[in-house]
Amino acid sequence: MLHRSLGPGGEFDRIRQIAAALGSSAEGLGEDCAIIPDGPGHLVASIDAAVEGVHFRREWLAPEEIGWRACAGALSDLAAAGATPVGVLAALVVPPGAPGEETERLMRGIGDAAEAAGAPVRGGDLTRGPMRAACVSVFGRSERVPGRGGARPGDALWVSGTLGGARAALVRWERGEQPDTTARQAFARPEPRIAAGRWLAANGATAMLDLSDGLAGDVRHLAAASAVGVTVDLASLPLHPAVAGAARLAGEPPPVFAARGGEDYELLAALPRAFDEAAAAACRAATGVSLTRVGSFEASQGVRLVLAGMEVTVRGFDHFA
Amino acid sequence: MLHRSLGPGGEFDRIRQIAAALGSSAEGLGEDCAIIPDGPGHLVASIDAAVEGVHFRREWLAPEEIGWRACAGALSDLAAAGATPVGVLAALVVPPGAPGEETERLMRGIGDAAEAAGAPVRGGDLTRGPMRAACVSVFGRSERVPGRGGARPGDALWVSGTLGGARAALVRWERGEQPDTTARQAFARPEPRIAAGRWLAANGATAMLDLSDGLAGDVRHLAAASAVGVTVDLASLPLHPAVAGAARLAGEPPPVFAARGGEDYELLAALPRAFDEAAAAACRAATGVSLTRVGSFEASQGVRLVLAGMEVTVRGFDHFA
Lengths: 321, 321
Hints:
By secondary structure, chain A is an alpha+beta fold. Chain A contains 10 helices and 12 strands. In chain A, strands 7-9-6-10-8-11-12 form a 7-stranded mixed beta sheet, with helices on both faces. A 5-stranded mixed beta sheet of chain A has the order 1-2-5-3-4.
């Protein structure tokens, strides 16, 4: 049962309990995606719910951006499975008094993110409710799903893009300020790394996930599922340009700020030792996405986050903490 | 664009607006399922959201029943597509203070409905929110999807099982009474007609949908999508045993009460004229589900609901009325 390989944390405790309640019908809980063998490859599917006041605030984002984020978050799971999206389903909950125009704009944002990933919106459900929520389900096909459990001692840990941009925007909004354009973009219109995910799956990734709760938390899932240890060199994290200022406001060293930042939707992958800077450059040439080596896997269990030679404790984000 | 074939009503006006906003990325909106050609058959998928206070009340249903209904509603869309379910994804929204045991029971209900349909729960998402909601996405495979648009003049209209049971339970609860066991069962644990849906798709159904908003409303979708008219003989509707008493309380003739009753999750199918009682008996023998002939399709547009020789007006259920 793959759910046994979840890292620690209140949300994961709950998922474990739920998986136990489901018994044998809970195959694959704890992976980013449902993975079903299909012909020579796999059918993969994922679901994500975005709830007003929890995942978004209307004061911060336009309806199109709320829709985009909800859809991009689910598509990002497909990216981590090395998949090509095939379709998107969206269920919207809106209060009876909400203007129809707002609902259309929300749906347009979902449609734009789906179209950018090459997957049309195939259907949906619209219902009234006490608050706004968007639930997006995506499905696609993958020739090879790296999964979370394949990292081996000696593999290196790589991350795509830059980290901390979405959290930098949040920190500004929470202080009543406006984030700068690039940080706002990182939060409001994250790019699911579909092409990079496919490329990494085809080029030897032994394990892969997408960063939804922050590298500090998510790397634990790779280590736990793979039954290996990992050391992350925080100084090597690729920081979003907005991190420097926001980390100062938060009173955290910039790499710690970035490692705690959720919802970057970058890919975190284990790659064989032989994967080098030339290979990373090839990925960038093929997909437009940069890769940075940020750590290495070891036989000894545990996750070590190291900054300036010292091990530091970094909490990830937990919905049920 | 299939969404043009939706019947009238506030919810459908909204879906049409949303489809217009999505433009070309909205393929198939308005069908019960997303339908994607896949090998010799089709991949089909659907999504349903169930929101506390809108689709269920905790005073009325146990958590397992709330979960079962949410999952059964989505599986019923697969039944209407003649599909074999392959997997279920569930996203739960629960308030931070909700007991973990309640969440597990909700999830167990989803798992039970999924297992009864032969499709394991393949993954999910758990998030906090201001109220409870369950969003269930299902996917499966179908060799032949009848769709909504294939009914021809001369075809007959058939319905599975009995109608009005779920509404009979609702009427009792709304009066502060307890529904009888069979009505409660109809509401709390509806059976998605998976086997019957497959059988009907393989045995000539020219159009099919599942009854979520009541026959009076849903039959309009078949007629509109097929560009034909239909006459429904309300006196021939197969009534749930609890309808007689509940219809009296509601002050409606029993067949009108049943035709307005949403969430029966029975199948409504157009079948060729040659489909007869012997064929219906064969369906029952193969699937355990009874079929009743309740009307006929005609070239002249429009939906006529006839009771005792008189045309009557019956409203369906509309989330945005």
